[in-house]
Amino acid sequence: MNRIYTFIIAVFAVVAVGAQQLNTSMDTTVVTTGQVTIKGVPVKYKATTGKYPVWDDKGNIIAGLHFTYYERSDVKDRSGRPLFISFNGGPGTGSVWMHMAYTGPKTLNIDAEGFPLQPYTVKDNPNSIIDVADIVYVNPVNTGYSRAVSTMSKEEMQKAFFGVKQDIEYLAAWINTFVTRQNRWESPKYLIGESYGTPRVSGLSLELQNRHWMYLNGVVLVSPTTLGMDRGMAADAANILPYYCAAAWYHKKLPADLQSKDLTDVLPEVEKFTIDELIPAIARGGFLPDAEKKEMAARISRYSGLSEKVILQHNLRVPKNFFWKDLLRDEGYTIGRLDSRYLGIDAMDAGEQPDYAAELTTWLHEFTPAINYYMKNYLKYDTDLKYYMFGPVRPWDRSNNTTGLDLRQAMAQNPYLHVMVQSGYYDGACDYFNAQYNMWQMDPSGKLKDRMSWKGYRSGHMMYLRSEDVVTANDDLREFIKNTLPAGDEPARYARR
Predict the structure, then answer these.
(1) Rounded (to 5) percent helix, strand, coil in the chain
(2) Separation of alpha carbons 120 and 133, rounded Å
(3) Phi and psi, residue 224, nearest 5°
(4) Digit-coded pLDDT (tens) for 162-205
(5) What is the tens place of the pLDDT at every residue in 417-456?
(6) Which pLDDT belongs to residue 73?
(7) Is 413 helix (H, G, I), strand (E, B) or coil?
(8) Which domains does the chain have, with CATH numbers?
(9) β 61-72/134-138 pair status
(10) What CA–CA distances, in Å, run from 265 to 228, 240, 268, 328?
(11) Could you give the maximum distance between any two Cα atoms of the chain, in Å?
(12) What does the alpha-carbon distance between residue 199 and residue 53 come to, in Å, rounded to a whole number?
């Protein structure tokens, strides 16, 4: 790689506390260059990493957000060049995950199914979307290298940063700063968020429109949460069955007639059963006749790989913790929460839940050395700060979470705005069927459904860790970009039919 190192003089935020003066570097960047071959074409890019500040309403710098920004080098006119703004979730984790394994120009040294290999290093990502879009990866406060000024108390940080609404408000203001400094106001803009990043970008879509007058072309929801939408007790209990079926199919725990079919041929059957029969049955609770209850337990057993006995013991409402513990209990294994292809080994086979998250342990094993190595050796970002894979952001204020409805409102206000959802079938934390269910409830009128799409992949929460799925998922992003860039003469307007 041909690297050019440009160090921009740091601007220091001076914060006074009584007689004490503390200098905190909150506005400094480093620039390098690189090249990656995508679909047989060499793509040169410039990488800018560092911090831009967050200000309070009095103009004082209260934090510095660490980011990494990639822009294709051979583009002279960026007015039509898409800009992706990327967030992960937690809350409390930074943008490392999609940065280092999904859309960025470098990726991990892992096997075809996403398991770590040594040495811990990075390699070119031939699937990166840098060929069609510039990308900035943003770390909220107390994730990655992002920090508040050292004089802020825990209570002040909580009030300013750590909650659904606080997070959206200060990040929208920071995006405004970034877009202005990088001169990207003309560009088509997209938000992409994973896990808790999905309520983040959903809320940002409306906040950017209404408070910063910044309008988007697209929002991508990767493994979305509930987005603050209440599904109801019956739907909550029933809607996890299609995920149970997918995980059981993967581990060959379904009856022979189902196991012999392909996964995507099995799932429509269990999805229909869930909506048409299981939700109404669970809604009747203890008043469901015993004969119908036993019939439901038999059907759930058929689709989940669990015994009718334990299903009846749970009154048809088998919690996910128990499923992860019980599905392979007789074989001495647990399965992963975020990706149920992963196996764990507990101290005892007895119990109600796994001892640990097998998949998350594996991911930290591969991502942590990679991001620390990459920042220092490729991006030349030197710091003594610890890179927070998971940082201290608790307690997190989850009140007033209207992010799903905020996204719907943003779509209604902006005819250009489209939404794509990406889900892994084996994700037990943010399961694929509830992601679809959210879409249906978000748009009860059906007037926005032509601008909403869903894509499924044969992996888990981080579908991009599987070599086959990272190709498909990035190509789906390319197609989404293509379909959401309007022609020059296409106005943002609604027309009567």
Answers:
(1) 40, 20, 40
(2) 28
(3) -75, 150
(4) 999 999 999 999 999 999 999 999 999 999 999 999 999 999 99
(5) 999 999 999 999 999 999 999 999 999 999 999 999 999 9
(6) 98
(7) helix
(8) 6-229+364-484 (3.40.50.1820), 233-359 (no CATH)
(9) antiparallel
(10) 31, 18, 7, 23
(11) 76
(12) 23
What are the C-alpha distances in Å from 50 to residues 19, 220, 376, 431, 464? 30, 25, 12, 34, 26
Helix 263-273 and helix 290-304, axial crossing angle in degrees, nearest 10: 160
CA distances from 54 to 1, 27, 199 (A): 33, 10, 21
- Please, is 65 exposed, middle or buried when counting C-beta atoms within 10 Å of its C-beta (0-12, 13-18, 19+)? buried
- Look up residue 188 and give its two tokens: 């088509």
pLDDT single digits (tens) 289-312? 999 999 999 999 999 999 999 999
Q: Is the dihedral of CA 407, 408, 412, 413 positive or negative?
A: negative
- Which two three-digit tokens encode residue 493? 């307007």
By CB atoms closer than 10 A (0-12, 13-18, 19+), residue 120 is: middle
Residue with tokens 């748009």: 443
CA atoms within 13 A of residue 166's CA, in its CB half-sphere: 19
Helices and strands, number each (H, E), in the chain: 16, 16
As a whole number of angstroms, the distance between CA 329 and CA 39 comes to: 44
Residue 10 has pLDDT above 80, yes or no: no
